[in-house]
């Protein structure tokens, strides 16, 4: 179902966020993938938000995507991460003209009509993240009949139980192998999920291992493979989308933590004080510190979206710095909220401890702080030579 079917009423993002928040603790406890949340996003037309209009979607840019991602993440961080990756990669598939138009149209239409999610599967047990170089051990081998067979294993495959399409980072078996994303239907014969995800935070993302065992592919699905040297030229727009989606996700988590601590301070009236904690200058100062961090994030995200939607994304080094800044600001905001609530912040009866755990995961996304700083520092020092 597309938003085009709801032209008179835009999706109520706040209502969706509240509904997701009501289920978030249970999903966190069990680690089960939140299928119902994505059914609701599909019903609201939001899974087609960044699908081109020519493929049945809304063709929206980054500004609309970030608004939706932040709202969803306020309710459920796990849903927010999978949703952010879906919108990011739908926009990416639309830009990747190496894939035939018919295949790109199918991927977009599947999201709009069936609610099929997409995400990139890049990390491997030995390689780690390909962002630091190296060839993947997931390999597509040419068959005598002209088809291909894909075999390998990916770890940290976010949203794996709910995916309809997988962008699998792989190489071919040529003497000079080409590498890149291979489009694989998640229900293809030979695709197997091994449940391995049991993390501190973002527990319902179900980021399990995915095994590919002689999965049959056609040329069109490998059309984006290219020599490794060609990947050394970063995709500025793709990196900006990654930064923004992650930034909006964790800003949404921090907004949820800020709302909870504000209500707690208004409601909490210690007998020895006789008035709400919210009236104390120290509490007001700390609440202001939280707002400082989140106001900065909001400004950064708005500016980034405006530049990307205008076709002028920042350079890769700047995107890396923005990612680390957005994530660290969000994590610090949650930490301040935790410090104000004391033992209440550590109780599983309250959502703040979940927000704290989810916020820690932001630092695990690439680019990591050391890589972002080194890249920006190298650029700065070489520029002054």
TrEMBL record:
Pfam families: Acyl-CoA_dh_2, Acyl-CoA_dh_M, Acyl-CoA_dh_N
Domain Acyl-CoA dehydrogenase/oxidase N-terminal: 17-87
Domain Acyl-CoA dehydrogenase C-terminal residues, every copy: 245-366
Keywords per UniProt: Flavoprotein, Oxidoreductase
GO MF assignments: flavin adenine dinucleotide binding; oxidoreductase activity, acting on the CH-CH group of donors
InterPro entries on file: Acyl-CoA_DH_C, Acyl-CoA_Oxase/DH_mid-dom, Acyl-CoA_Oxase/DH_mid-dom_sf, AcylCo_DH-like_C, AcylCoA_DH/ox_N, AcylCoA_DH/ox_N_sf, AcylCoA_DH/oxidase_NM_dom_sf, Mito_Isobutyryl-CoADH
Protein name, per record: Acyl-CoA dehydrogenase
Organism listed in the record: Teichococcus oryzae
